[in-house]
Amino acid sequence: MKTNNHSTPEKPVNKLQRSALSVPAINERALAKLPGLDFDVVIFDLEDSVAPESKAEARFKLIEFLRHHRFAGRRTVIRVNDRHSEWFADDMAAVIATGPDAVLVPKVDDPRDLQFVADCLAENDVAYDMRIWAMMETPRGLLNAPAIAESARSNRLECFVVGLNDLRKDTRVALTPDRSHLVPWLMQVILAARAYGLGVLDSVNNDFRDLTTFGAECAQGRAMGFDGKMLIHPAQISAANLHFGPTPAELKQAASIIAEFQKPESANLGVIKLDGKMVERLHLEEARQLIAMQNQIDSRGKRE
């Protein structure tokens, strides 16, 4: 098997991924609505949401759709079937033909699952800016989260996406509104991702009609450190964008921190006082990232 020629990935750039809408590639009606939606990421699904007898049709529809539609300022991701499945080779051919921003690999158990995909891309001379995302949805995957995250040093891995439906099925853990039994595992994935500079998205919420509970889950995910959330319905986009985006209060605070450190008397200081609190230069970096995130939101321009 060919080894990836790119031994050291570039440092990941912070990208908007507050809302990652998953759409079954077989669903032409859902595909047709995409240009008018305000998501940050669209995940075209060839895996769980497509029946075995419809895999080929879904693949064909996706290729045709992407020939005519691209989404300026937003990212496209294709979720393929498991590498051990009969559909994987054709799915990867579709990925290579359409050139999404990333390929989402399901049911990742260990780094070998990602290296197999990375080698496939390298063997077909796919540019390194097509990245790999990993579904963290199996017990083995969560146990191996640090090793999987570390593998980003030698493959295209950019982001983790938590999949609680499969994980709960395999572990028989009950789902409660506060996800209390799952929080330790979610934090484990976040910690592994951050240790190696990866993005990380929270799992879907299956009840797209209950936006109150969904909003609370988004707020919890933001507090835990997730970058955004995988969605299953357009109705969830606004809440995800709201909760995972900067608040007016956060932006005001960030602007104050930046302005204070820009004063001549603060040039050589590692710590300053602001509104009765001690603020370090690490908070300056956080403030700049927050302002940069808002600038991305503001500059994305009109939707397609």
Q: What sequence of helices (H) and strands (E) makes up the elements?
A: EHEHEHEHEHHEHHEHEHHEEH
Mean pLDDT: 91
What is the 3D form? globular
Q: What is the strand arrangement across the widest sheet? A: 1-2-3-4-5-6-7-8
Total helical segments = 12
Low-confidence stretches: 1-13
- Percent in strands: 15-25%
Please characterize this protein's 3D structure.
With 304 residues, the protein is of the alpha/beta class. Helix content is 43%, strand content 16%. The protein contains 12 helices and 10 strands. The protein has an 8-stranded parallel β-barrel, surrounded by 4 helices. Strands 9-10 form a two-stranded antiparallel ribbon. β3 (75-79), α3 (88-98) and β4 form a beta-alpha-beta unit. The longest helix is centred in the last third of the chain and has 19 residues, at 281-299. The termini are far apart.
Entry summary:
The protein is of the alpha/beta class. The chain contains twelve helices and ten strands.
Topology (SSEs and partners):
Layout: E1 19-24, H1 28-33, E2 41-45, H2 55-68, E3 75-79, H3 88-98, E4 102-105, H4 111-123, E5 131-136, H5 139-143, H6 145-150, E6 157-162, H7 164-171, H8 183-195, E7 199-202, H9 211-224, E8 228-231, H10 237-244, H11 248-261, E9 271-274, E10 277-280, H12 281-299
Parallel strand pairs: 1-2, 1-8, 2-3, 3-4, 4-5, 5-6, 6-7, 7-8
Antiparallel strand pairs: 9-10
Helix pairs in contact: 2-3, 9-10, 11-12
